[in-house]
Design a protein that fits this description.
The chain is an alpha+beta fold. The chain has a domain of 69 residues: Arc Repressor Mutant, subunit A (Orthogonal Bundle). Helices cover 36% and strands 13% of the residues. The chain is globular, with a radius of gyration of 16 Å.
């Protein structure tokens, strides 16, 4: 069992983490989710943050996992920003610099 002092803190990308080049085309599903989020954030009067839990409400486990993965892809590309207060807590999504 590890103690807190033995844990390794990641200080930057590892060699296995590859950030996609900016000119790489987006998958159709990723682009569809991006467009839906953009429409939401562009709608006057709508909240400028959205809960991933709310977006995944009613989805089966496989579709919720896919949505979570696509959220990470969009965050990696700086299309959205994600914030999580605590491990396993709600993930809040907001507009990124490249949306």
């Amino acid at each position: 069992m590890f103690t807190c002092s033995e844990l390794i803190v990641e200080s930057g990308p590892t060699q296995t983490q590859k950030v996609p080049p900016p000119d790489q085309p987006m998958e159709q599903l990723t682009d569809s989710i991006r467009m839906q989020l953009k429409a939401h954030f562009d709608t006057p009067g709508c909240a400028q943050t959205e809960s991933l839990n709310q977006l995944a409400l009613g989805l089966d486990r496989k579709k919720a996992a896919c949505l979570f993965y696509q959220t990470l892809v969009l965050a990696t590309r700086d299309i959205i920003k994600v914030y999580q207060k605590e491990p396993y807590g709600n993930i809040v999504i907001s507009r990124g610099a490249k949306m």
